[in-house]
């Protein structure tokens, strides 16, 4: 069900990847993970999260 959503909050992104919310926030702050601030939280698209994890494993370079 989670993969059918267009955007995830950081809790959902952390659950899907196994990374902590703190690590995802660091990636957002450094520009390595694209995200949008909505209210008090962050929203991440699943495809942006996949690109970020590819970069972590050396499959692709950060843009």
Give me a quick take on this structure.
The chain is 44% helix and 14% strand. The protein has helices at 10-17, 21-29, 46-56, and strands at 8-9, 36-38, 41-44. The longest helix is centred in the last third of the chain and has 11 residues, at 46-56.
What topology emerges from the helices and strands here?
Elements: E1 8-9, H1 10-17, H2 21-29, E2 36-38, E3 41-44, H3 46-56
Antiparallel strand pairs: 1-3, 2-3
What are its keywords?
HTH_17, 3 helices, alpha+beta, 3-stranded antiparallel sheet, globular, 63 residues
- The helix-and-strand class reads alpha+beta
Work out the helix count.
3
Strand neighbour order, sheet with most strands: 1-3-2
Q: Which sheet architecture does the biggest sheet show?
A: 3 strands, antiparallel
Q: Quick one: overall form?
A: globular
State the end-to-end CA separation: 29 Å
Mean pLDDT: 89
- Low-confidence spans: none
Order of helices and strands: EHHEEH
Question: What is the alpha-carbon Rg in Å?
Answer: 11 Å
Helix content: 40-55%
Let me know the number of strands: 3
Pfam families: HTH_17 (PF12728)
Protein name: Helix-turn-helix domain-containing protein
């Amino acid at each position: 069900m989670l993969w059918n959503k267009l955007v995830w909050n950081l809790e959902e992104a952390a659950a899907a990847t196994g990374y902590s919310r703190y690590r995802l926030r660091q990636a957002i702050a450094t520009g390595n993970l694209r995200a949008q601030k909505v209210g008090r939280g962050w929203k991440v698209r699943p495809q942006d999260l996949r690109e970020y994890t590819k970069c972590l494993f050396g499959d692709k370079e950060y843009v």
